[in-house]
Design brief:
Blueprint lengths: L20 H8 L3 E5 L2 E4 L1 H20 L3 E2 L5 E3 H7 L1 H4 L5 E4 L5 E4 L4 H11 L8 E10 L14 E11 L2 H21 L4 E5 L10 E7 L5 E5 L6 E3 L20 E4 L6 H8 L7 E8 L2 E8 L6 H8 L4 E3 L2 H8 L14 E5 L8 E4 L5 E6 L9 E3 L18 E15 L1 H5 L3 E3 L5 E3 L1 E8 H11 L1 E2 L2 E2 L10 E5 L5 H16 L4 E3 L6 H11 L3 E5 L1 H5 L2 E6 L5 E5 L3 H10 L1
Parallel strand pairs: 3-7, 15-17, 17-20, 27-28, 27-29
Antiparallel strand pairs: 1-2, 4-6, 5-6, 7-8, 8-24, 9-10, 10-21, 11-12, 11-21, 13-19, 14-15, 14-16, 18-19, 21-24, 22-23, 25-26, 29-30, 30-31
Bound molecules: adenosine-5'-triphosphate and magnesium ion.
Length: 566
């Protein structure tokens, strides 16, 4: 490709609407352009990256025994009624009507469509297992489309669905996908972690997320360096060993804390460290007001609380209801004398003589003790895991990382097949629902995640397996015949060898060309300048290194091949 012909409009300024680096760089480097909120054009260079990501995914899905098909984006309301999701999907679903007033969804996902498809044509256990996938645009009217391709309203996903005759079969399909996903992210050359995930609303039981590591990611994960344990903080179990509490219980005391609301304020006011405080949070669980007590410096994990209570609806209680029940409001609450069920985090059960609100505005209690001063309904693991917690597998100290969820695999079981009455005949001629799994990779999000993980202050540094082109040749002056001829020669040699190369044939200053080459992130730059060319040499620079290397003209192809091999 000649740069003069390339459609890659780069920008010098950082676009003001872009908050995170991948969004900024993809816009600046001419990879994407916004059509409307959360909807983007993939420009030619981005399209090449996406094709490479898709090809790696395709190869690994096919290797695992899956088959690619292509389902429609427009899906009739009826199948969503069958699964019950037309009502529950809510505002995230794009809906439209045809001229006859019939209703449709733009596919946010394809469980319904594929379940009805397979149900219509698969009748016997002999046709199972079956793994089908597609790579296609998905539509979700996200509340906050943001961060460019990270959270779009139209985005590219690979979605795969497995159908098995029994749960042993599902385990096998799931493991195949788990391995295939690992191979995909290895081949993409991204640093990632597989983490245990909360299967949340999707149902089923087992679920894993594939998270590309990046400080700006929305996912927080805890992991163990000693063993393989890693989990989403929403899921990570907090182990608290029963401690031998030797400290004697002291007499409970009520102290005035005028105007002191937050744990920070009360802790400073009383001169008692934050880990000796507890906080009391009031929730409404299926209509009942409850109190949850956790250590003052911890965060409550609502997913754990919801799972533990096994309730359908959970939200923070309103202030007026809290005041009515407790006689005080947020900032002065505590578990002593409360007229509602109190749930206590495991860690609090190990605390002695702690501080809490007195259920009277501007007063706190010190030297409070569980058992003596209040009796909880239950003690459970209710907080978010944090750095330094013990690994639930090996006991080592856990660490925390941030990342971007790029893949998610679920065991669905019979959630959709039962709702949609999708069955086959088993060996005994008995009708059974399909046992299903679903497996997604955000293809466009993966491109953004790759940038988020691989860049410097000058631009993108594409990992070689997904770089739009591998080499960019930069003659420092196109008006110099010798330089131009040498550049053309190298260009032809590389193209003939099948190496994806850009020749920067623009009549621009060398500085401009270097800036663009760095910005668009091409892994290998070959600079042709008058001085080195006189000695029959060119400069070769790897995008991720500062220094370049002088290479004999005759050795250029070999050198490039060596770098690209990694
Ligand atoms: P999230 O929690 O980020 O909203 P999700 O749980 O809704 O993700 P899935 O339904 O499991 O996502 O979709 C599979 C994959 O599709 C995700 O792992 C992610 O990589 C990608 N994806 C989901 N929503 C978006 C989006 N709005 N924009 C880009 N990619 C997305
Ligand atoms: Mg989502």
């Amino acid at each position: 490709m000649r740069y003069s012909e390339l459609f890659c409009p780069t920008l010098r300024e950082i676009p003001s609407e872009a908050e995170i680096i991948s969004h900024q760089l993809l816009l600046r480097a001419g990879f994407i352009r916004k059509a409307t909120a959360g909807v983007y054009t993939y420009m030619p260079l981005a399209n090449r990256v996406l094709r490479k990501i898709m090809n790696i995914i395709r190869e690994e899905m096919d290797r695992a025994g899956a088959q690619e098909l292509l389902m429609p984006i427009v899906q009739p309301r009826e199948i969503w009624e069958e699964s019950g999701r037309w009502a529950v999907y809510g505002d995230e679903m794009f809906r439209l009507k045809d001229r006859h007033n019939r209703e449709f969804a733009l596919g946010p996902t394809h469980e319904e469509l594929i379940t009805s498809l397979v149900n219509a044509d698969v009748h016997s256990y002999r046709d199972l297992p079956l793994m089908l996938y597609q790579i296609q645009n998905k539509y979700r009217d996200e509340i906050r489309p943001r961060f460019g391709l990270m959270r779009g309203r139209e985005f590219i996903m690979k979605d795969l669905y497995s159908f098995d005759a029994d749960y042993e079969g599902l385990d096998i399909s799931y493991n195949k996908m788990y391995e295939a996903y690992r191979r995909v992210f290895e081949r993409l050359n991204l640093k990632y972690r597989v983490v245990e995930a909360d299967s949340g609303a999707i149902g089923g039981n087992e679920s894993h997320e594939f998270v590309v590591l990046a400080d700006t990611g929305e996912s927080e994960i805890v992991y163990c360096d000693n063993c393989d344990y890693a989990a989403n903080v929403e899921k990570a179990a907090c182990v608290v060993e029963k401690q031998d509490i030797s400290e004697p219980m002291r007499d409970i005391e009520k102290v005035a804390t005028p105007g002191q609301k937050t744990i920070e304020e009360v802790s400073a006011f009383l001169g008692i460290s934050k880990d000796k405080h507890v906080k009391t949070l009031m929730y409404e669980a299926d209509g009942e007001i409850i109190a949850v007590v956790i250590r003052g410096d911890r965060e409550l994990n609502e997913a754990k609380l919801k799972n533990f209570l096994n309730c359908a609806q959970l939200f923070m209680a309103e202030e007026n209801k809290v005041r009515k029940l407790c006689g005080a409001t947020f900032g002065s609450l505590g578990p002593v004398g409360l007229e509602c069920k109190v749930y206590v985090d495991l860690e609090v059960a190990n605390m002695r003589n702690f501080v809490c609100g007195a259920n009277e505005d501007d007063f706190h209690l010190v030297n409070v003790n569980l058992g003596r001063d209040f009796v909880p309904e239950a003690v459970a693991d209710l907080r978010n895991a944090v750095k330094g917690d013990k690994c639930p597998i090996c006991g080592n100290s856990l660490d925390v990382l941030r990342g971007i969820e790029v893949g998610h695999i679920f065991k669905l079981g019979t959630k959709y097949s039962e709702a949609m009455n999708a069955t086959f005949l088993d060996q005994n001629g008995k009708e059974k629902p399909f046992i299903m799994g679903c497996y997604g990779i955000g293809v466009s999000r993966t491109m953004a995640a790759a940038v988020e993980q691989n860049h410097d202050e000058d631009g993108i540094i594409w990992p070689i397996p997904i770089a739009p082109y591998h080499v960019i040749i930069v003659p420092v002056n196109m008006k110099n015949d010798k330089l131009r001829t040498a550049a053309e020669d190298i260009y032809n040699t590389l193209i003939e060898a099948g190496i994806e190369t850009i020749l920067d044939d623009r009549d621009e200053r060398a500085g401009v060309k270097f800036k663009d080459a760095d910005l668009i992130g091409i892994p290998v730059r070959i600079t042709i300048g008058p001085k080195s060319l006189q000695e029959n040499r060119v400069e070769i620079k790897k995008r991720w290194e500062k220094e370049s290397e002088l290479v004999e003209l005759t050795g250029v192809l070999e050198k490039v091949r060596e770098i690209l091999k990694g």
